[in-house]
Design brief:
single chain; 304 residues; alpha/beta; UDP-N-acetylmuramoyl-L-alanine:D-glutamate ligase; nine-stranded mixed β-sheet; four-stranded mixed β-sheet; 10 helices; 35% helix; binds adenosine monophosphate
Length: 304
């Protein structure tokens, strides 16, 4: 059942109109693995940090059942640092600084115990590295979920297209879907991306929810109407973690169960944005997650 998660591991500095935090643990792998840890164990994490990454964060990840054997710690190196500032409209974000540091030379190497993982989430990193991870597995995995961003769509399109041939489910935001497909219409974009490899596409629309496309279904999930959103950082990754977590837990890849997984993804994303960094998804209970999931279902249920 084990789930392999690869992605960035970062020290983030985040500014919003409400507050600022400095050098807090973040990165796609951290958000994905933490969110997925509420559904399945063990989670095998692959990433790189420097010696400045706080020991307490390793301890936290391990306490969530996340296996860190595949984590590379570069002695004397500095962890990837990212600084972002949100506008009053939290949908608008400026990246103020990206220091790649040890992430620049990252070469994901899978320990032997990781090579039989049946489920894989490829967080947002260079598509060449994403492909290398899939090719290092000893057996074809059951499910490969992939995230990417405009930086790779524009800068490494050919590499990304090669990687997409090996991907089952692509999770992407609306502007990235349009960019990847060179097509303004989202439905046509999704169909076009499906012809590149992934059988299922999820298009995230921030505070407007997410769309799921399979061969036979289009499903529209709302976003949770939170009164206080503190920090949207990592929402997409928390979504990916909740989504894959539910699929791994149930081992059911039917369209109906994919819809439930989208709601679980949205649930984890909603907790994520309610606090800074990963704070919002650090200590959830099953009751809280199930309660929010049910509220989601109620949000779009109508009497016929
Ligand atoms: P999201 O809000 O989904 O864009 O994810 C935010 C996380 O992505 C932050 O924790 C950052 O550390 C991480 N991040 C920012 N830029 C990059 C990048 N170029 N490659 C990988 N991860 C990044």
């Amino acid at each position: 059942m084990s789930l392999l998660v690869v992605g960035s591991i970062a020290l983030d500095t985040i500014e919003t109109p409400f507050d600022r935090v400095e050098d807090v643990a973040g990165g796609s792998a951290v958000y994905i693995a933490t969110a997925a840890s509420y559904f399945t164990a063990p989670i095998r994490m692959v990433g790189v940090v420097g010696s400045d990454f706080p020991k307490s964060e390793f301890e936290f990840l391990e306490s969530r059942g996340i296996d860190l054997e595949g984590l590379q710690v570069v002695p004397g190196g500095k962890t990837f640092k990212w600084k972002g500032r949100y506008h009053y409209d939290l949908n608008i974000r400026d990246t103020l600084e990206t220091q790649l540091n040890v992430f620049e030379e990252f070469n994901p190497i899978l320990p032997e115990s990781y090579k039989t993982c049946r489920y894989v989430v490829l967080g947002n990193i260079d598509p060449t590295l994403q492909r290398r991870v899939i090719q290092s597995l000893s057996k074809k995995p059951e499910l490969v979920v992939c995230d990417t961003m405009n930086f790779w769509i524009e800068g490494k399109r050919t590499e990304l297209l090669e990687t997409l041939k090996l991907v089952d489910i692509l999770i992407i935001n609306d502007s990235e879907a349009r960019l990847l497909a060179s097509e303004p219409n989202l439905i046509k974009s999704a169909r076009k991306i499906m012809s590149l490899g992934p059988k299922t596409i999820i298009i995230k629309k921030g505070e407007h929810g997410a769309l799921l496309f399979t061969n036979d279904t289009i499903f529209s999930a709302p976003a949770y109407p939170l009164e206080s959103i503190y920090d949207p950082t990592g929402a997409g990754d928390a979504f990916a973690g909740g989504f894959i977590g539910h699929l791994v837990r149930t081992e059911d890849f039917s369209d109906e169960n994919m819809k439930r997984a989208v709601i679980y993804g949205s649930t984890l994303a909603s907790f994520c944005v309610s606090k800074f960094g990963i704070e919002g998804i650090k200590s959830l209970s099953d009751v809280e997650i199930l309660g929010r999931y049910r509220e989601f279902i109620e949000l779009s249920r109508i009497e016929d």
